[in-house]
Specification:
This protein has nine helices and ten strands. With 255 residues, it is of the alpha/beta class. It has one domain: 3-Layer(aba) Sandwich (Rossmann fold). Strand 9 and strand 10 form a beta hairpin. The longest helix has 16 residues. This is Sugar ABC transporter ATP-binding protein. It holds the Pfam family ABC_tran. GO terms for molecular function: ATP binding; ATP hydrolysis activity. Keywords: ATP-binding, Nucleotide-binding.
Amino acid sequence: MSGQELIRLEDISKNYGAFHALKEISLSVDAGAVTCVLGDNGAGKSTLIKVLAGLHAPSSGQMYVAGEPVEFSSPRDALNAGIATVYQDLAVVGQMSVWRNFFLGQELTGLLGRLKEQEMKDIADRQLREMGIDLRNVDVPVDSLSGGQRQVVAIARAIYFGARVLILDEPTAALGVKQSGMVLRFIAVARDRGIGVIFITHNPHHAYLVGNRFILLNLGNQVLDATVEEVSLEELTSQMAGGGELETLSHELQA
């Protein structure tokens, strides 16, 4: 159901010894909405992903899934809760076919463990077509696809296997304008299907094209939590770039 709260973080902190990677982060992720988490390198985005994905337990604070408090001890716990993470480097085997990558680790088998190849090919082809990716042949190696297409394969795979929340780790970072546009369109498709999307990015322009809510991190601190109605692209870009710091620097350079 669109608008239903899927995830809520309350005052999540993560410390590594004396280093405070996250400091009292609070956010919510709703069904049918894109929550964008922005920040430069070192802002805390990667640590937040690790907490959400069950890789690292928070040092303090509470995470809720569908209103119930949870404590993840592994990525399997997050997956079982319907949270799937698509990392920037993509967990794909380049020389393996598209359909094999689609079912990697979750293959359909019949008698004596024999792979149901045709069934898996048909499912992969249908799911990709529904996401707008029309491949002539799902037997081609995944390495033969564009960067944007590989991202979409990973997104479609996560949705097919039951993800209710999709965490996307900088999916457009290494892509050009056209390929980025492809990925952003499919983020919108996932959103419109009722998936709760967490879009991790350092690009405010990409975030603003698809985002419903914007969380800005800076050195582990949450410095902005605003809906698309509450903040303009110009304001988001200014805060992302340092806002007042840039203005001060501009005056110094012109002096």
